[in-house]
From TrEMBL:
It comes from Herbiconiux aconitum. Signal peptide: none annotated. It comes from the Bacteria. This is Dienelactone hydrolase. GO terms for molecular function: hydrolase activity. Keywords: Hydrolase. Pfam families: Abhydrolase_11 (PF20408).
Length: 222
């Protein structure tokens, strides 16, 4: 399976593989900005799209499939990145992309391909359906994991997530009043969207660097 990769950031920097959310392209404005900010901090990102999204570029509109149906696509993307950049690499994604990454992370970590996992706005449940949890595999996750999440994300608020049984390998970096794109209400939170993006990027960059080469982390994330 051939994987088209979009690289951003300095050659030789720690590598983070990222897949976009279910309705977004790998070069969406949000993904572009996040990867630009990571590049400024020395992180090299390798983005890719699942086949259904790549098909939309040629006019074939396909709905997003179930997460379990694209696991092999994520595995192939990691294989392609590792063949070019070496192993291990960190993996993750925005929303759906992060969820898929979380479903293959332990397997790839055990194989030595992956050092850590980064989820940007994890979709703990569909909006308005808090009973439909997507957390079962997260209780036993072994790979070091960082989730960046807005406190009012409709896919999982801070109040909701605090009640979930999550693995001790998972750290959550909360963005006050942020929604799914980390955007806060400025008058309520005192923060801007750009400030929250920068804060999230700082946390991700420090986390990826701490596990670059498969080493142990040097500190917790708030």
């Amino acid at each position: 399976m051939s994987t088209e990769l979009l690289w951003t950031g300095p050659e030789g920097g720690p590598v983070l593989v990222l897949a976009p959310g279910a309705g977004a392209a790998m070069d969406s404005a949000w993904m572009n900005r996040f990867c630009e900010l990571l590049a400024e901090r020395g992180i090299r990102t390798a983005r890719f799209e699942f086949a259904y999204m790549a098909a939309r570029r040629t006019g074939t509109r396909k709905p997003a499939p179930r997460a379990d149906l694209v696991l092999d696509e994520y595995r192939s993307a990691v294989e392609a990145v590792v063949s070019l950049a070496g192993a291990p690499v960190a993996i993750g994604g925005k929303s759906f992309g992060g969820r898929v990454a979380s479903m293959v992370a332990d397997e790839l970590h055990a194989a030595g391909s992956v050092s850590a996992l980064v989820c940007l706005g994890y979709p703990f449940h569909p909006p308005g359906r808090p009973e439909r949890l997507r957390t079962e595999h997260l209780s036993a996750l072994r790979v070091p994991t960082l989730i960046c999440q807005g406190t009012r994300d409709p896919f999982g608020t801070r109040a909701e997530v605090s009640s979930y049984a999550l693995s001790p390998a998972i750290r959550i970096h909360w963005l006050e009043d942020g929604e799914h794109e980390f955007k806060p209400r400025v008058k309520i939170s005192g923060h801007t969207h750009e400030q929250h993006l920068a804060t999230a990027v700082d946390a991700v960059a420090a986390f990826v660097v701490s596990y670059d080469g498969g080493g142990e982390s040097q500190g917790d994330v708030a």
